[in-house]
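Dear support,

We are seeing what looks like truncated structure output for some complexes. This example has two components. We would appreciate it if you could run it in full and send us the complete token output so we can diff it against ours.
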Amino acid sequence: MTHSTSDHTAGQPATPGDPEGIDPSVLDELTRLRDSIDNIDAAVVHMLAERFKCTQQVGHLKAAHRLPPADPAREARQITRLRQLAESAKLDPGFAEKLLNFIIAEVIRHHETIARSDNGTEGPEGALR
Amino acid sequence: MTHSTSDHTAGQPATPGDPEGIDPSVLDELTRLRDSIDNIDAAVVHMLAERFKCTQQVGHLKAAHRLPPADPAREARQITRLRQLAESAKLDPGFAEKLLNFIIAEVIRHHETIARSDNGTEGPEGALR
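Here is the complete output from our reference environment:
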């Protein structure tokens, strides 16, 4: 991320932050795409906020009823399903799987907090899925 | 993720994959929450598929018009905005920022592919945001 415009001595390309020299139609197209990216990011943030509300409830439910935290069969089904959904949406299935694992890592971190506040005796593994 | 039910000798808790011994109302609640989690995951996968379509277009646009790949000001605005959105949605802003960085890393990987296929001369840094 330390790339600077000084690397582009030939042609002196302008930066999007400095609109001079950019064809206005190109700048419009870039702005249009970035507005869509920003809308999508807002949607994803809100979907994930809702997802964490669900997994918090799962965590409390499991702690209250002494259900085991890990459910490897559930996790395997989630990964298989997400990979299939990604393929049909033309998203790299490997990326979808990595993303799920990234989110699950955060869920586990949340569960550690729940386990402490509920004085639960379960370990932190996978309880909120 | 190697946690097994054999760790729970006291009380022999049932597993969600083995419904015997679980109160049906608890199982219903767990299923309801998991169905919501699955719906949200499907929505997120599809939103991200759409996001990558946008960033692919940004990559081609920048390559075609020799725009510099990095735009640190844009990136800083994205992070500030996402952290604010996360806070209002009661999602950990730190998690939202980590997620954006995780997605951007994948975008950069895609850009490396575009740069090769377009025979571009730009570096891989940040071109698709």
